[in-house]
Design goal:
10 helices, 4-stranded parallel sheet, alpha/beta, 3-stranded parallel sheet
Length: about 210
């Protein structure tokens, strides 16, 4: 199964902000117990690279990637620490080319037809739609999917349990990115059972939406 197929099968990529390495392993375990085996650790904190490293070594069943990657240097550092995929908030062609050259799956952020066309020209089949709520959400994705049927979207930003079903029912959506699965306060307070429960609910909604 290639990475795109894996993303489609799981249906959700939790967007994770970690401020302490000690939270990395219990969080990965909590997500796995909830049926989620993909996670994107954002490169917004000092310990992000170390958290990726710990999870990639200690939790082999979890496919861990790096998010908020905005330059090649960050991409290199993420992959050196075990990141299996790269997610960017926007479309940086240098980052995309570097990832392709190193056979690392990459999902850049796009919201306009021009950005999507650049992504297609680079050979990509999946793009992040971010921030989804600001740029028209599901309605915008449906409109964009008409001329760009070869592209699948990963909407992120404003996705929640309340609108998850609506997004997943959209055939142009391969999966969603979500920070509601593991909120910063829940991580800080060690609410691992709660995170597992939220994960299970999300996976149940995805399965139901897909029939």
């Amino acid at each position: 199964m290639d990475f795109t197929e894996k993303v489609i099968k799981t249906g959700i990529v939790p967007v994770v902000v970690l401020n302490d390495v000690k939270d990395a392993l219990p969080l990965a375990d909590a997500l796995l117990k909830g049926g989620i085996d993909l996670m994107e650790i954002t490169f917004r904190t000092e310990c992000a690279a170390e958290c990726i490293s710990v999870i990639s070594k200690e939790v082999p069943d979890m496919i861990v990637g790096a998010g908020t990657v905005i330059n090649v240097e960050q991409a290199e550092r993420a992959v050196e620490n075990g990141a299996k995929f790269i997610v960017s908030p926007g479309l940086d062609e240098d980052v995309v080319r570097w990832a392709i050259d190193h056979e690392i799956p990459v999902i850049p952020g796009t919201v306009t037809p021009s950005e999507i066309m650049r992504a297609i020209a680079l050979g990509l089949k999946v793009v992040k739609f971010f921030p989804a709520d600001v740029y028209g959400g599901n309605k915008a994705i449906k409109a964009l999917s008409a001329p760009f049927g070869q592209i699948k979207f990963l909407p992120t930003g404003g996705v929640s349990e309340a609108n998850l079903k609506e997004f997943i029912e959209n055939k142009a959506v391969c999966a969603v990115g979500g920070s509601w699965i593991c909120k910063k306060d829940d991580i800080a307070n060690g609410e691992w059972d709660k995170i597992t429960s939220i994960s299970k609910n999300a996976i149940a909604i995805i399965k139901e939406a897909r029939g």
